[in-house]
Amino acid sequence: MAEDCANPLLAKWLKEWMDEAKERNSKGYKKAYQSMIACPLRFKHPTEAQQLNGLGPKLCDRLAVKLKAFCDENGLQMPTKGRKRGRVSEALNAESAELENPSPTRKPRKTQTYVPKLRSGAYALVKALSTLDQETNEAIPKDRLIALAQPLCDASFTAPSDPTKFFTAWNSMKTLESKELICTKGHPLKKYYLSDEGWEVALRMDAAENGEQLPPTPKRTKKAPVRDRSLSLDLSPDPPLRQHLPAAVIPPVRASRAESRNASEVVDLLSSSDSEFNSARAIMKNSIPRRSQILEPSVIPGTAYEDFITLPAGTFEVKMVLDMREVRTTTDRDYISGELKKLGVVPMIRSLPLGDILWVAVASPQYSEKLRAASIADGAEGNLEIVLEHIMERKRLDDLVSSIKDGRFHEQKFRLRKSGIKHVTYLIEEYSLSAERSDKYGEALESAIASMQVVNGYFVKQTAKLDDSIQYLAQMTKTLKSIYERKDIHVIPCRALEAETVSIMLDRYRKLYPGMTLGMTFPVFGAMCDKSDSTTLRDVFLKMLMTTRGVTGEKAVEIQKIWSTPRAFTEAYSDRDRGPARDNLVSDLLGNAIPRKKVAKTLSAKIAEVWG
């Protein structure tokens, strides 16, 4: 067998060493010997056999020593070491392939002129340094440079946009220094100034912003994915926020029901231009009935309340209310409100009974007596604040997963539906999830977001980071101010407040008068959203049923349809004898009520153990 292989001498020595190892009850050299006799390639030197299974550097060196001794005994010349062989097919065909197909000469790649993205960290730094005197080569320290660049950048130069990361807009300085656009001088206080190439980039940026003709730039020969977000200049008046949520977590397709909403109801603010904002406002303005179409009397027929109060346009101011628990981190609680103030929005901070952000109309003091006379929350906080038709729930991906796991997600949606507010927006921020958690809850996240859009009709806005969310909130506040401050608001009194009555009445009059803006005072909204005051016996019964493991919302609703109260449910068990009749009470009546998943007898027995 050793004589038939391509390297009989090496195989012979390996067999001798294998036999010696067998005498010592060892299996050494067996794998190397089998690989050698099976190899069809002839080796010039033993070191080339390292590609075989079982032959390492030490064994090949031992074979080389054995071969040298053999050559010395027989007066032969020791072969020289060649280059290491790769795969067998590559070793056989490499030389012929190189001769037949010589590699063509590569053309030098044309470099593209670097231009930072609009309002990025690199953009702000270059623009700030371009305000200095070029002839005197003026330079400024870091603190002064940040003060000049911060108004020109959307991100912060001092605080990271994500609490889990450590990168700020100042990290763009490394990119600019590596491209030799910014130079430094001075020690120990380092100062920064633009190089000649940096001044050229600054001139190109000014020309692009002023709409001047730019010199032609060389085209790329190959489109490669750009990782640095500052490599392109976006000079649109309102650059859209990029969607960076994982495709496996966030469904990219908008639900048809959400898309079919009226333009006056849902406006994706940061992905629309100013012209689209104006068209949306025009549509809303045209959809408002004229005064001749709206009932002039302050008492609207068919309602149990009297003396509806109308706040004319111009007698109130629209403001944003931010929940005091919405913070960046526990040690940086004022980051969101501080960034909003930089964008021209001063939020009102307080504890909200529902949602994370909502918008109110603060009435003028001249209407205070009129509101108190109608018994609208006299002496309570927010008695001059009218809650408008928009509310927002902000969720990070990890928080959304946690709320789905512990049931808060469904409870929040239930309370939002009963709040009486017309437009609900879910603001979902991207957050890095582990691969295991993403695989485990990816489908649940997709289902939850699709359910919000299709089933509940909520608008879902996805952002890449907290700074993008803050920018969206600021733009949404400015848009709502321009929409609602031109309209009259009809305020609902609260003389006989019942949450179900108010929500039903709001739905009825919104259908009768689509252009009418109805609102409620902040205390009325708080009472409607109170977890204890607005909870009915049916809600409590459903929650009691769902505490049993395996009882979903659908099964609890079907049980409640048959037995409307907990007392009726317990009496149904008391009328049956112990045994299968009692254990199978629910499964016998609900066996086919839920088509997707039947109520098993084991679950029915578990319910009977709790309620029977």
Summarize the structure in words:
The chain has four domains: 8-100, DNA polymerase beta, N-terminal domain-like (DNA polymerase, domain 1); 121-209, Winged helix-like DNA-binding domain superfamily/Winged helix DNA-binding domain (Arc Repressor Mutant, subunit A, Orthogonal Bundle); 256-527, Rossmann fold (3-Layer(aba) Sandwich), CATH 3.40.50.10130; 537-611, DNA polymerase, domain 1 (Orthogonal Bundle), CATH 1.10.150. 42% of the residues lie in helices and 10% in strands. The protein has 24 helices and twelve strands. It has helices spanning 8-23, 30-38, 57-74, 88-100, 121-129, 142-149, 172-178, 196-209, 256-259, 274-287, 335-342, 368-373, 397-406, 408-418, 435-454, 466-484, 499-512, 522-529, 537-546, 553-562, 566-574, 580-583, 585-590, 601-611, and strands at 140-141, 182-185, 191-194, 309-311, 316-323, 348-350, 357-363, 385-396, 423-429, 459-463, 489-492, 517-521. Strands 4, 5, 6, 7, 8, 9, 10, 11 and 12 form a nine-stranded mixed sheet that branches. Strands 1-3-2 form a three-stranded antiparallel sheet. The radius of gyration is 37 Å and the shape is flat.
